[in-house]
Amino acid sequence: MELSKTDAPLNILVVGLGLIGGSFAASLRDCGENFHLMGFDLRDEYIEEAVSLGIVSEGCDDFESAVSKADVIQISVPMLAMPKVLGQLKGLDLNGKVITDVGSCKGSLVKAAQDIFGQVPENLVPGHPIAGSEKSGVTAAKSGLFKSHKVILTPLENTDPSALSLIRYLWQCCGAQVNAMDVQRHDEVLAMTSHLPHLLAFSLVDTLAGNPENQDIFRYAAGGFRDFTRIAGSDPVMWHDIALGNSDAILASLDQFSEGLVHLRQAIVEKDSKSLLATFERARTARQHFASMLERRAYMATLNENQGDSVTFVAQPGGTLKGELRVPGDKSISHRSIMLGALAEGETIIDGFLEGEDSLATLQAFRDMGVDIEGPHDGRVVIHGVGMQGLKPPVGPLYLGNAGTAMRLMAGLMSAQRFDVTLTGDQSLSSRPMDRVVNPLVEMGAEIETAAGGRPPLKIKGGKSLKGIDYEMPMASAQVQSCLLLAGMYAEGETSATAPGVVRDHTNRMLTGFGYPLKVDNARVSIQGGGQLSSTAIDVPGDISSAAFFIVAATIASGSDLLLTHVGINPTRTGVISILQLMGADITLLNEREVGGELVADIRVRSAILKGIDIPLKLVPLAIDEFPVLFIAAACAEGTTTLRGAAELRVKESDRIQSMVDGLVALGIDAEALVDGMVIRGGRPFCAGTVDSHGDHRIAMAFVIASLRSQGEVRILDCAHVATSFPNFVRLASRAGLTLSTEGIQA
Ligand SMILES: O=C(O)C1=C[C@@H](OP(=O)(O)O)[C@@H](O)[C@H](O)C1
Ligand SMILES: C=C(OP(=O)(O)O)C(=O)O
C-alpha cells in the first residue's frame, strides 16, 4: 500500500493510548505529513487526555466504527491484551487496511494471530520500537520518543510488501531507524538485551526493599544503584506480560546469567583475583566495544556522548624534544598475535600488546568466536588457543571498527571456517576497498558478498573448501599477502602470493614463530595447507609507525635530542628512517637486537636541517603509513620533495594525499597533490590555522608535529581516532616537549 498523492489524509487508529501508542501518535502529528490521528482506549480518561493534549485529533469510544474509518491500525496495548484486540478485529472488515503492533515479544503475537485468524494475515506487520521510558501512561507520551531509536519489524514470508513499506515509512516519519529481523531472532536478542536487564533491576530492588535496613540502603544509594535500577520504575503490567510472553528466551538468558553469577560468586569465595580481574576486564572492554559498535564510531567518542566525534587537538607553536620515550606496541604485530594465538594449540602469552582500538577490535572479534582471552593488562594478553578448527560461530556480525588490517586478514581466515560470518566496520572502514582480498579468495573457492564497489560489510559463507592458488598481487600490500597466507593454511595444496616489491613480512615471521612452515622466495611467499600452529610467547616491539611522529618531531624541532626505546626496526618497515636520512636527518640506531623473530633497537634522533628529495620508489611500501608525517618533514625541508607511486594513500583511513594537501595549504605550505603522490616546496614555517584530520589518526598526529615549526596555534579537528593506533599520544607528546591540549575528551 502506497501513500496516495491525493489530499485525503491517511487515517491512523492507535489502539491503546499509553506511553508508546501516545508517543507514536504525537510523533506522527508533528512530522508534517497528512495524517488523521484517531485514538481508542478502554479507559475513557486516556481518550479525553489524548484529545485534550492534542495527541490525537479524534477520540473514539466505539471500536468497530473506529476500525471501519482507519487505513492503519496500530495496536499499542500490553502484550497479554493483544490476543483480545486481534479477536475483536477478526469479525471486522479489514480489507485494504494495514495492522501493526508495538509488542516486545513477536513470537507470542504471531502465535496469537495464527490461532485467531488461522494464519497470520498478510496485512499484519509485527513491529517493536526499541524505545521507552520508565514512565507510563498517555501523559508521559512524547513526540520525538522514537527519534534516532531503532524499530524492529518482523515480517513473515506472506507479509504484503506494500504493507511492510507503509509501516516502515510511518516509523521513519517518527524519526526512527527501521530494521527487519526474523521473529525468533528478535525474541532471543530482546530477551538478552532488554528483558533480562529489566528483570534483574526489578529483582534487585525487590530484594533490597525487603531488607530490614532498606531505609538506609535507599537513602545512601549512590550512582551505581541508581543507574542499574532506573528501569525498575517501569510499568509492572507491561513487564508481567513480557515475562510470560517471551518466557522461553527469557528463561534461557536467565540461566546463562545465573551461571555467570555462580562463577563470580565462586571466584570471590576462593579469592581468585585472576578470574575476577579477567571477568571485569572482559566486560569492560566488551562494553566499550559494543558502545562504539552501536554508534559506529571511535571508542573515545562514545565515552562522552555529548562530544560526539568532535575531539579537537590544540597544539601551541614551538618546543624542543628531550629525554626518553617508549611508544606503544606495533599494531600490525598485535593484530597478527591475536589471530595466530587464537588458532594455536595451547596458551600464547603476548607482552607489549597495543591497547589501541584497532587491535582491541581484533581481540574482541576472537572473543566473539568463543576464544578465551585474558587481558590486556599492562600490555599482557593471554590467549587460550582453540586450534585451527576450534572457532565458534559468533552470534552477530564481527565489528572491526576502523581497522583495515583486521578486516582484510580476517577475510582470509573467515573464508575457511565452517560457519557464516559478517565483517563490518565504522564509516571509514566501510568505504575502503575489499575487492583486493575478495577476488583472490573467491578464486580459492570462498563465497563472499560485499556491498557496492567491493566495500564492507563482507558476508562470508562458511563450509567452503578452499584450494591453493598462485597469485600475482596487483598492489604491494602486506594485508593482501597476509590474507592469502592465512587462508592458505586451510586450503588444499599450496597457496602463493607474490607482491610487486617488498611489503611488511610480520605474518611470515610470526607463522614461523608458531611453527608453521612457509617458503619465502624474495617477494613470493608460499604456504602448504593443513598444518597446525603451536602456541608461543610474543614480545611486541614499539610501533615504528608511532615512533615516526617523534622521529620527525625531534628532527624538525631545534635543540632536540630524543631517545625512542625498544622500537621495531624490521627492515620491511624502516622506509621512514631511510627517507629521513636521505633528507639529512640525524638518526642513530643503538642496541640493535632480535626479540622473538623481530629486530628491535633504541633510536636516537637529534635535530637537523633537512633538504627536499625525490623519494625513491622502492622505499614507498616500506614507509606507507608514515607519509603523513613525512610530508610535514618535507614542508620543513629546504627545496622540493616529490613523492610518486603512492596511490595507495588514497584508500587508507582517509584519502591521505588530499587530507594532507588540504591541511598543508591551510597552514600556508606550497603543496600540490598528484594522482599518486605529492610535490611539496618546503622551507617556510607553518602559519597558525585549523586543519581537518578527516577522522584519520595519522593525519591528526602529523599536524600536531607541524606545530613545532608553526608561527601560531594549530587546531586539528576530528581527532578521536588517534586512539586506534596511539591511545596515549597526547600524554607522550606533552612529556616529550610539545604543548598539546584537547578540546572534547582526553586522548
Ligand atoms: O599488514 C599490515 O599490518 C598493514 C599493511 C599496510 O596496508 P597495505 O597492505 O594496504 O599496504 C599498512 O598500511 C597497514 O597500516 C598495516
Ligand atoms: C592504514 C592503516 O591501518 P589499517 O589499514 O589497518 O586501517 C594505518 O594504521 O595507517
Automatic annotation (TrEMBL):
GO terms for molecular function: 3-phosphoshikimate 1-carboxyvinyltransferase activity; NAD+ binding; prephenate dehydrogenase (NAD+) activity; prephenate dehydrogenase (NADP+) activity. It catalyses: 3-phosphoshikimate + phosphoenolpyruvate = 5-O-(1-carboxyvinyl)-3-phosphoshikimate + phosphate; prephenate + NAD(+) = 3-(4-hydroxyphenyl)pyruvate + CO2 + NADH. Keywords: Amino-acid biosynthesis, Aromatic amino acid biosynthesis, Cytoplasm, NAD, Oxidoreductase, Transferase, Tyrosine biosynthesis. Gene3D superfamilies: 6-phosphogluconate dehydrogenase C-terminal like domain, Enolpyruvate transferase domain, NAD(P)-binding Rossmann-like Domain. Residues 10-298 form the Prephenate/arogenate dehydrogenase domain. It comes from the Bacteria. It is found in: Cytoplasm. Phosphoenolpyruvate binds at K331, G404, R432, Q479, R656, R698. Its EC number is 2.5.1.19. GO terms for cellular component: cytoplasm. Pathway: Metabolic intermediate biosynthesis; chorismate biosynthesis; chorismate from D-erythrose 4-phosphate and phosphoenolpyruvate: step 6/7; Amino-acid biosynthesis; L-tyrosine biosynthesis; (4-hydroxyphenyl)pyruvate from prephenate (NAD(+) route): step 1/1. The active site is at D625. GO terms for biological process: chorismate biosynthetic process; tyrosine biosynthetic process. 3-phosphoshikimate binds at K331, S332, R336, S477, Q479, D625, K652. Catalyzes the transfer of the enolpyruvyl moiety of phosphoenolpyruvate (PEP) to the 5-hydroxyl of shikimate-3-phosphate (S3P) to produce enolpyruvyl shikimate-3-phosphate and inorganic phosphate. PANTHER family: AROM/DEHYDROQUINATE SYNTHASE, PENTAFUNCTIONAL AROM POLYPEPTIDE. This is 3-phosphoshikimate 1-carboxyvinyltransferase. It comes from Endozoicomonas numazuensis.
